[in-house]
């Protein structure tokens, strides 16, 4: 499912522009600007499924690095520092990956 079916294209562009610089990514602010926080839990889970490129049921560290590209092909790669910080914030059970419920909880925290 394309992100543009769930989120406004203008919000996606604004969010990506705001975090264009390396090491500027803040997941809380990104989720707010892109419009994820306003989505229902069901729609946040649809976004998760779009970001879970290998359909494993988890967003692993390697997928997380490319999370901004999941919103738009113009998105940049996260730096290793940003990727690790994002993973640490979301991975509540310590298994090294983000499950669908962890992602939804992170978006709506």
UniProtKB/TrEMBL annotation:
Residues 39-74, 78-109 form the EF-hand domain. One of its GO terms (molecular function) is calcium ion binding. InterPro entries: EF-hand-dom_pair (IPR011992), EF_Hand_1_Ca_BS (IPR018247), EF_hand_dom (IPR002048), Parvalbumin (IPR008080). SMART domains: EFh. Ca(2+) 1 binds at residues 52, 54, 56, 58, 63. Ca(2+) 2 binds at residues 91, 93, 95, 97, 102. Keywords: Calcium, Metal-binding, Muscle protein, Repeat. The keyword Metal-binding applies. Gene3D superfamilies: EF-hand. GO terms for cellular component: cytoplasm. Pfam families: EF-hand_7. It comes from the Eukaryota. The keyword Metal-binding applies. Belongs to the parvalbumin family. In muscle, parvalbumin is thought to be involved in relaxation after contraction. It binds two calcium ions. This is Parvalbumin. It comes from Triplophysa tibetana.
